[in-house]
Amino acid sequence: MPVTRLFINKAKALSLTAIFCGVCLAQEPAFVAFKTAAEPATPSNMVLPEAPSQHRFWDKENWMLFSTVAAFSAADFGITRANLANGGRELNPVTRLFSGSTAGLAVNFAGETAGVVGLSYFFHRTGHHKLERIAPLANIAASAFAVTYDLRHR
């Protein structure tokens, strides 16, 4: 498994998320004042703009994204386990901690999947719906790269 490159890519994605997360959380709804010539703007006649349409967290798109995340994690687990059983070594230093047993490796990939769902839910609850979709997409891309690399370097 090309863990070095994979680990670097995941670290970059995590760093970017951490850097911009504080900026994203600093958003507040903007107050829009509608004034007429006869009536000055007061807090009683200020209105909020319409909120963007909310969607349920477990909507069809998230189901598809999380199913894909789980499928790629399962594929990555299977290929990594097969490579380790045939004398290969784990290059990802985080996954290497769990690669001593099949159960440990399964826990690692299950935890990765749960972490993606949890991060996406956090973004959903804080109103950052684009980031909610980007988190699983980034994991899908990283896992697809890892699976492809593992298959090419058997």
What does this structure look like?
- With 154 residues, the chain is mostly helical.
- The chain has one domain.
- It contains five helices and two strands.
- A two-stranded antiparallel sheet has the order 1-2.
- Helix 2 runs parallel beside helix 5.
- The radius of gyration is 22 Å and the shape is elongated.
- About 4% of the residues have low confidence.
Short structural description:
With 154 residues, the chain is mainly α. It contains 5 helices and 2 strands; from the N terminus they run αββαααα.
Average residue pLDDT: 81
Beta-strand content bin: under 5%
Portion in helices: 55-70%
**Element pattern in H and E:** HEEHHHH
Decide which structural class fits the backbone.
Answer: mainly alpha
| Contiguous helical run count | 5
**Taking strands numbered 1, 2, ... along the chain, how are they ordered across the largest sheet?**
1-2
Query: First CA to last CA: what distance?
Result: 9 Å
Count of folded domains: 1
The outline comes out as elongated
Main sheet summary: 2 strands, antiparallel
From the alpha carbons, calculate the radius of gyration and give it in angstroms. Answer: 22 Å
How would you summarize the topology of this molecule?
Layout: H1 3-25, E1 32-33, E2 46-47, H2 60-85, H3 93-96, H4 102-125, H5 129-152
Antiparallel strand pairs: 1-2
Looking at this protein, list some descriptive labels:
single chain, 154 residues, 5 helices, elongated
